[in-house]
Amino acid sequence: MKLLAILGVSAFASTVALVGLSVAQQAANVQTLRNTNIDGLNIVDDVYQQQEGREARNYRQQPPIVPHSLDQYQIDLRTNQCLTCHDWSNAGDRGAPTLSMSHYLDRDGTQLDTVAGTRWFCNQCHVPQADAPALVGNTFQPSSSR
């Protein structure tokens, strides 16, 4: 009985090894997405700078695009540095646009004095604008142009 089990396990192991070798040989034909070999130097394009001014919105209720970098902004469960300028209590002094009142409504529509938890992570909807080439083709037309 033990001999039968040992033969079965060894047959299974050899089959797995052969399949593994076959898959490894086929993987040698995989093309890289980096345009260079894995051990080669990967040349990265220049970083695109932020545009001056505000971008026009393309549709109703489109979240505004942020006209500055967010690289050094901390947004986590305890801290949201966007609110140091954009909260209604600070925006006037800082010359920054105020958050929409919808950011102060909870799920039930109750008006809050602080930003609702569902609107806390600004970069879920708002992204920094950049003069960067499109990654994919786009034929989108704003609704007002139809």
TrEMBL record:
Q: Does the keyword Transmembrane apply?
A: no
Which residues are involved in binding heme c 1? 68, 82, 85-86
* Leader sequence segment: 1-19
Matches recorded under Pfam families: NapB (PF03892)
What InterPro entries would the database entry show? Multihaem_cyt_sf, NapB
Q: Which UniProt keywords apply?
A: Electron transport, Heme, Iron, Metal-binding, Periplasm, Signal, Transport
Query: What happens to this protein after translation, modification-wise?
Result: Binds 2 heme C groups per subunit.
Q: What is its main location?
A: periplasm
Subcellular location per the Swiss-Prot or TrEMBL entry: Periplasm
Q: Name one GO biological process term.
A: anaerobic respiration
* Residues given in the record as heme c 2 binding sites: 103, 122, 125-126
Enumerate the GO terms in the molecular function aspect.
Answer: metal ion binding
Question: Which cellular components does GO assign to this protein?
Answer: periplasmic space
Q: What does this protein do?
A: Electron transfer subunit of the periplasmic nitrate reductase complex NapAB. Receives electrons from the membrane-anchored tetraheme c-type NapC protein and transfers these to NapA subunit, thus allowing electron flow between membrane and periplasm. Essential for periplasmic nitrate reduction with nitrate as the terminal electron acceptor.
Under PANTHER family, the record lists: PERIPLASMIC NITRATE REDUCTASE, ELECTRON TRANSFER SUBUNIT
The record's subunit annotation is: Component of the periplasmic nitrate reductase NapAB complex composed of NapA and NapB.
Tell me its family. Answer: Belongs to the NapB family.
This chain belongs to the protein called: Periplasmic nitrate reductase, electron transfer subunit
Question: In which organism is this protein found?
Answer: Aliishimia ponticola
